[in-house]
């Protein structure tokens, strides 16, 4: 088994795409048929998509937590403002990580590879 798609919803998809681009993701802005315009990128076999909120949503789900391992850990962290860095780099049983917050309030774990 493997994951193929991860979709998050955002109140501001452009701001979200800009945030995740700081992690090294390269997005395309497109739509499928008559669906909503959204941002998408593919890493290995996983497609990560940022869609606008559904019509009945007023805010994004902030309980979703993502973890991403990156090669250029120190450089990437400098791209985030101090307000976006919730937890400075520290060692854990899973390796060194920092926690940042995306524009919708989700906590994103950034791991050093």
Automatic annotation (TrEMBL):
<protein>
    <submittedName>
        <fullName>Glyoxalase/bleomycin resistance/extradiol dioxygenase family protein</fullName>
    </submittedName>
</protein>
<keyword id="KW-0560">Oxidoreductase</keyword>
<dbReference type="GO" id="GO:0051213">
    <property type="term" value="F:dioxygenase activity"/>
</dbReference>
<keyword id="KW-0223">Dioxygenase</keyword>
<dbReference type="InterPro" id="IPR029068">
    <property type="entry name" value="Glyas_Bleomycin-R_OHBP_Dase"/>
</dbReference>
């Amino acid at each position: 088994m493997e994951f193929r798609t991860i979709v998050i919803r955002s109140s501001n998809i452009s701001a979200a795409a800009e945030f995740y681009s700081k992690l090294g993701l390269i997005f395309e802005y497109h739509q499928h048929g008559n669906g909503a315009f959204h941002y998408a990128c593919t890493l290995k076999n996983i497609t990560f998509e940022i869609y606008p909120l559904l019509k009945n949503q007023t805010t994004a789900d902030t309980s979703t937590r993502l973890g991403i391992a990156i090669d250029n850990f120190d450089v990437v962290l400098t791209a985030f403002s101090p307000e976006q860095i919730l937890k400075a780099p520290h060692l854990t049983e899973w390796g060194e990580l920092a926690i940042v917050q995306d524009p919708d309030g989700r906590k994103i774990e950034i791991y050093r590879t």
